[in-house]
Amino acid sequence: INVHASLLPELRGGAPIHYAILQGKTKTGVTIMYMVEKLDAGDILTQVEVPITETDTVGTLHDKLSIAGAKLLSETIPQLVAGKLTPIKQ
Question: Is the pTM value of this prediction over 0.85?
């Protein structure tokens, strides 16, 4: 599995935090997904939304997404092992 710093399928690829700010988005998030050969294209397991404030920078948003991602991953792994998740195709 992989942790990606956006609400896939939006902002697929590199620098999703930078692009979220540059594009003036008001929210982004973290996606946990299966890895496949194509970049950031695997089935989605879980996601969590994170608001972007007017004062957020790449650094502050990175920190918020890191915390949200760690929490989401710790919740996702037990659910995955227990077979309680239904992957969503992108």
Answer: yes
